[in-house]
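Follow-up to my post from last week.
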Amino acid sequence: MSDKLQAWLLELRTPLAAVATAVLVLNLLSWGFGEAPWATLLTAAAGSWGTVYGIGQVLFKATPLLLAGIAVDLALRAGLFNIGVEGQIAIGSLAGTLVAIVLPPGLPTIVAVPITLVAAAASGALWAGVAGWMRARFGAHEVITTIMLNRIADALVAMIMTSWLALPGTVRTPDIAPSTSLPRLEALFDALSGSAVSWAFPASLLVLVGVYGWLRHSRLGRELVWVGHNEKACAAEGIPVGRRKILAMALSGAIAALAMAGMVLGYKGYYEIGLGAGVGFGGIAVAFLGRGRPLGLLLAALVFGTLAQAGLVINAKVPKEATGILEAVVIITIALSSRAAAKDAQRRAASASKGAA
Amino acid sequence: MSQLLSLTLVAETLRLSIPYACAAVAGVWSERCGVVNIALEGVLLSSAFGGVVFTLATGSPAAGVLGGILVGVTMSLGHGLLAAKYRVDAIVSGIALNLLAASGTRFLLRAWYDSASNSPAITGFHLGPTGSSGGAMLARTLLDPVTLLAVFAVALTPFVLHRTRFGLRVRAVGENPVAAASVGINVVGVRLAALAVSGAIGALGGIHLALDQHRFESGMSGGRGFIALAAVILSGWRPVRAALACLVFAALEATQILLQGQHLIPHEVLQMLPYVATLVILAIAAGRARAPAGLGKHAPE
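User reply:
Got it. Predicted complex:
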C-alpha cells in the first residue's frame, strides 16, 4: 500500500516541478518589469481559476490545445512526429468555415455542424496525409515535410483569403450560417456568463475518449501502435506499415482540424488569417506533458490553457509574451523531470529485483 | 541591362544565402556529432536579437557580432546540455528553445525598446562602393565582414571535420557514441564543443539577418532554420553541399523578389515556391541520404 502511495507521489513530482518553475519564472519576469512579483501571480491565479468565468475561459483556451495534443500524440503512437498541426489547423479551419458559410440557412444544427466538421477534418486529413504519404513512399522525414507544409499552408490560406474569400479591406471571412454555430455553455450555467467556452469542449472530451478507446480496442488502432513500437516486426507479420503510417498521419490531421470547432463555430463565427496560430506548437507541448495517457493529455491541456488565460489577465502589468517564456520553461522542466523520474524508477526496479534474489 | 540584372541577381542570391548557409553548416556540426537540431531557428532569431542589442549598447557593429555569437553559443549549448547531457528528446528541447527565443525576444523588445515589432535602427559596417548598380551591390555584399566570416566558416568546416583530431572525435561520437566512449572519448564533452561551434556559426547567420535589415524584427528568422535543416538532410549531412543547396534556395528566393514587381503570378504562389521545391527535392533525394548512425543515441551511463 505504501509502495502505491510512494509511486503516486513520484508521479506527482513532474507536474509539481512544472508549476513551481512556472511560478518562479513569472515572479522573476514581473520583478524585472518593476511589478510586485507576488501580486502578478495572484492576479494571474484570480483571473484564471479564481472565478467561474475565468474557469470557463481556461476551458475555452484548453479546447483547441487538447485537440492539437491528441493529434500530435496519435501520430507519436505510430512513431511519427507531426509538427504540421499548425498548418493542418489553418487548412481545416478555412475549409470548414467555407462550408459553414455556404450551407443553406434552413438546415438544422444537428445536420449542419457535423457536415462542417467533416469538411474540416477531411481537409486536415488530406493535408497531413501528404506528409504521411511522403514518409511511406519516399522515406522523407515527416518533421521536415510537415514544417514545409506549414509554410505552404500559410501562403495558400493567405492567397485564398486575400484574392477571394475575405471581406474587402479585412483579413476575415463573412459570417458562418447561424445553424452551424455551436452554442456556448453559458446557456446551461448562468455562472459562465460571458465566457467563450462552448459545446466544443465536451465534444473534444468525446474525441479524447474515442481516440484512446479506438487505439486500445480496435484491430486497426492496435496495429497502428504496434507499427510505432516495431516497424520491422509488423512488416514481417504482414501489416502494411506504410498504409498504417499514412492513416495515422491523416487521422492526426483530421483531429487537428477539428480544433476549428471551438475557435470558429463556438467563438468567432468567422475565420480570419492567424486564427489558431500557435495552437499547433502548444499541442506538441501538451502531447509531451500528457505522455500518451488520456487523463494526462487533458491535464496538460488545462495547464497550457491556464497559462494562456493568465497571460491575458496580466497583460496590463507584464507583456503577454511572458506566457511563451513560461511555456518553454514548463516544457523544459517537464522533460528534465520526467527523465529523472524514469531513471529513478529504473534504479528502484533494479534494487527491488536485487532484494528478491 | 541584362548584365546588370544578372549581377543584381548574383548579389541578391549571395546576400540571401548567408543566413541559410550559416544555419545549414551549424546544423551539420550539430547532427554530425549526433544531436538532432531543430533549435537552429531559435539560434538564428536569438543571435539576431543579441547582435542588435550589443550594437545598440556599444555603438559598434563589431561588438554586436561578438554579442550575437555569445547569444548563439549560449542557446546552442543549452540545447546540447538538454539533449546530450540530460538526454531530453532533442525535438522537444528544440521546440522549447525555439519558443523561448520567439517569445523571449518579443518580451525583451517590449521591455527594453517599448515596441511590439522591432528594435530601433542600427548602423552596419558600410564597406564598399555606394550606389544601386548590380556591381556595387555585389561589391558591398562581398566586402561585408559577416559574409566573409560566414564564407570562411563554411570553407573551413569540411577541413576541421575530416582533417583534425577534434573533427574525427565529433564524427566518432556522431556515428557510434558507445564505441567512442569505450575508447575513452568524453562523448558529452565533444558534443557540447561541437554544439558551441554550431552555435557560433549559426549566430553569424542571425547577425547577418539583423545587420542586413539594420534592425531586429520580431520573428525575423522566418523559418530559415528549418529550411536549413532540410538542406542538411538533402546534402547527406555534408557541409559544402548543404551550403550549395542553400545557395540554390536563395537563388529561388532572389528570383521571387525580383519578380515581385511584375504582376503575372500572385506573390503568394512565389512565396510557396521555395517550400514546394524543397518538398519535391526531398521526395527525390530523401531515401538515398544516410544519416549519422549515432543521431539521437547516447553512450551508456
